[in-house]
């Protein structure tokens, strides 16, 4: 078996979550890496949508930002930012929204705004909402990709930037959120899925070599564990080769000079 | 018809202390050179508006030009946090920075409402988040036809919007292509506008996917080749990702930042 890192396992697991032919709203960083890995392996017809207005981007290298030229150059269509949000995201045309989180609670509510202190005088000021609140509201389903740890997996989030299942069953319907919400959370330790009855994130799969105790120790609430807990497949040699080649393109992005 | 001006004259004439200023650009076509001119001319007490305040707003904030920021995502894309923005919010350095915070969908629609001459925009957004608790500019509204509860956000009407584009002709008609973000809406929403361009040409050749801003809808145009660097201008330059990475270290420390601004912005000779 090839050696791989926990982050590589997480990225591969996230990529595998994407079905061929679906439309995916991609944020920068790990989601973009995972979506491009999926497109280069099992999902060649995956439609990548970047909030900069690039619909159906087919980059041959990983962009550093959601607006790199390679996205516009390879897109089926480049539309304005109001159009991305109003015509494409809001009506529910996008199958999967990929989100990260600085804090996440057991109902998949996400904080990317402030940590500690209070809003006007926070301990840590984070970038804020971006497209996330409406991605979380309107995509048919949301996949959260985040490293699991006590600072991230918290009993309560300090700020609700994007709503998961609110305080539990029925909250999304009550709020009028039409998308399916964060049904899947993929971490460096395993996969959590929202329980259909309680909406609580439940550990359903561990990555190879990870124990339930490790997952519990990295979770800031009493972690629910599925009765049929499974162990996922390690990355294949092909997945690792493609992923590493993609990562290498990010480091060698051209800089300066005429196009 | 838009006036052709120098960058220095354009900023002097159109950007005033205390103004609400939008420098838009979604990764692509960010008007860095115009932002630097605002710093050189020492503008103060600005309300800076932008969906994605990134490095140029970090510079304006660190240089003490801003009193207030209206935004939806403040970071260095793919790199990390904006340290001058964080220092201003967390420690009021060099001056306190008031925030009004939205989502991208909300900000985009606020510009659309401004460009459309409407007092507000309606969207499905913000519901259930903590964002509406911190500004009165996000409110629920009932649809008069279905009774459904939606969200209203007020129009954005900047005093001046500044954008960068590929080129303009001598009548000030502006042509841009590639990722054009929310620039058209931001210009049309504003009372005044300044567009910096890579070049001024005799005739605008059509380009697929282009957005054209008619010269009579733009206040002034200034030729500033390379005016988007380290952002990029499709067809003219590529994004200087190395600079964005380097900014993290430059901006982390107040003195290093101040020194950088002094050497690369304040002391730069500009052609009048």
TrEMBL record, chain A:
Gene this protein is translated from: gctB
Name assigned to this protein: 3-oxoadipate--succinyl-CoA transferase subunit B
SUPFAM superfamilies per the UniProt record, alphabetical: NagB/RpiA/CoA transferase-like
The organism's place on the tree of life at top rank: Bacteria
Keywords on record: Transferase
Family to which the UniProt record says this protein belongs: Belongs to the 3-oxoacid CoA-transferase subunit B family.
GO molecular-function term, one example from the UniProt record: CoA-transferase activity
Keyword Ion transport: no
Record bears the keyword Ribosomal protein: no
Family matches, as Gene3D superfamilies: Glutaconate Coenzyme A-transferase
InterPro entries on file: CoA_trans_fam_I (IPR004165), NagB/RpiA_transferase-like (IPR037171)
UniProtKB/TrEMBL annotation, chain B:
Keywords: Transferase
InterPro entries membership: CoA_trans_fam_I, NagB/RpiA_transferase-like
Entries under SMART domains matching the protein: CoA_trans
GO MF: CoA-transferase activity
Gene3D superfamilies: 3.30.30.40, Glutaconate Coenzyme A-transferase (3.40.1080.10)
PANTHER family to which the protein is assigned, alphabetical: ACETATE COA-TRANSFERASE YDIF, CHOLESTEROL RING-CLEAVING HYDROLASE IPDB SUBUNIT
Family under the similarity heading: Belongs to the 3-oxoacid CoA-transferase subunit B family.
Name of the featured protein: 3-oxoadipate--succinyl-CoA transferase subunit A
């Amino acid at each position: 078996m090839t050696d791989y890192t926990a982050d590589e396992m997480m990225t591969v697991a996230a990529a595998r979550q994407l079905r061929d032919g679906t439309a995916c709203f991609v944020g920068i960083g790990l989601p973009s890496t995972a979506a491009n890995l999926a497109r280069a392996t099992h999902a060649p017809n995956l439609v990548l949508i970047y909030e900069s207005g690039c619909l159906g981007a087919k980059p041959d290298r990983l962009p550093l930002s959601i607006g790199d030229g390679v996205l516009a150059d390879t897109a089926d269509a480049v539309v304005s930012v109001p159009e991305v949000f109003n015509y494409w995201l809001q009506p529910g045309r996008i199958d999967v929204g990929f989100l990260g989180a600085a804090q996440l609670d057991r109902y998949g509510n996400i904080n990317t705004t402030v940590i500690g202190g209070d809003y006007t005088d926070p301990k840590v000021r984070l970038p804020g909402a971006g497209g996330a609140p409406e991605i979380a509201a309107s995509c048919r389903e949301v996949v959260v990709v985040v490293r699991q740890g006590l600072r991230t997996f918290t009993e309560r989030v300090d700020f609700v930037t994007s709503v998961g299942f609110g305080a539990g069953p029925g909250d999304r319907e009550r709020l009028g959120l039409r998308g399916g919400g964060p049904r899947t959370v993929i971490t460096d330790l395993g996969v959590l899925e929202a329980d259909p009855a309680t909406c609580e994130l439940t550990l359903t799969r561990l990555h190879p070599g990870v124990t339930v105790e490790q997952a519990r120790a990295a979770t800031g609430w009493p972690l629910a564990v599925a009765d049929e807990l499974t162990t996922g497949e390690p990355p294949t040699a092909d997945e690792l080769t493609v992923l590493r080649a993609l990562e290498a393109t990010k480091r060698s992005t051209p800089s300066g000079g005429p196009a | 018809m838009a006036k052709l001006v120098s960058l220095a004259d354009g900023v002097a004439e159109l950007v005033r202390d205390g103004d609400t200023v939008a420098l838009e650009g979604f990764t692509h076509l960010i008007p860095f050179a115009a932002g630097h001119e605002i710093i050189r001319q020492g503008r103060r007490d600005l309300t800076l508006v932008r969906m994605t305040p990134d490095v140029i707003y970090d510079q304006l904030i660190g240089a003490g030009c801003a009193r207030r920021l209206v935004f939806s995502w403040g970071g260095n894309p793919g790199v990390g946090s904006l340290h001058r923005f964080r220092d201003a919010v967390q420690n009021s350095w060099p001056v306190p920075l008031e925030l009004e915070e939205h989502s991208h969908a909300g900000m985009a629609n606020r510009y659309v409402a401004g460009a459309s001459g409407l007092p507000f925009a309606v969207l499905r957004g913000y519901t259930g988040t903590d964002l509406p608790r911190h500004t009165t500019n996000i409110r629920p509204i009932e649809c008069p036809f279905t009774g459904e509860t939606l969200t209203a956000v007020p129009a954005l009407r900047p005093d001046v919007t500044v954008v960068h584009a590929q080129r303009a002709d001598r009548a000030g008609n502006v042509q841009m292509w590639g990722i054009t973000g929310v620039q058209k809406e931001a210009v049309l929403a504003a009372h005044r506008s300044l567009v910096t361009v890579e070049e001024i040409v005799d005739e605008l050749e059509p380009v697929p996917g282009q957005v054209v801003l008619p010269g009579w809808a733009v206040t002034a145009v200034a030729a500033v080749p390379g005016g988007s660097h380290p952002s990029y201008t499709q067809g003219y330059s590529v994004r200087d990702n190395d600079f964005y990475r380097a900014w993290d270290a430059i901006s982390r420390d107040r003195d290093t930042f101040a020194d950088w601004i002094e050497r690369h912005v304040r002391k730069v000779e500009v052609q009048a």
